[in-house]
Amino acid sequence: MKISDYVIFTEKEVIDMEYSFTCPTRGCNFSVKVNTQSDDWAVEKIIEVSSVHDRQAHPNLPSMTVQQIRNIVLLDVKERVRI
Ligand SMILES: [Zn+2]
Prior knowledge:
The protein is α+β, with helices and mostly antiparallel strands.
């Protein structure tokens, strides 16, 4: 391994977290995964994608609020990190 490779590796040593969101609607398998180190960024992306999904797949259901989605996403991440 060259020294330059090692430096690049240590700069990226913090491992991305995998955030995921699965559509809570019964029978719907839609899910989103985002790899990042930022809770806020992950939630923002998931909300972006899932709101489009809601409009297309479940136009008759009320959309989840930002806070509801955020709670689901962050709870899921914390559960997996604990393992
Ligand atoms: Zn769905």
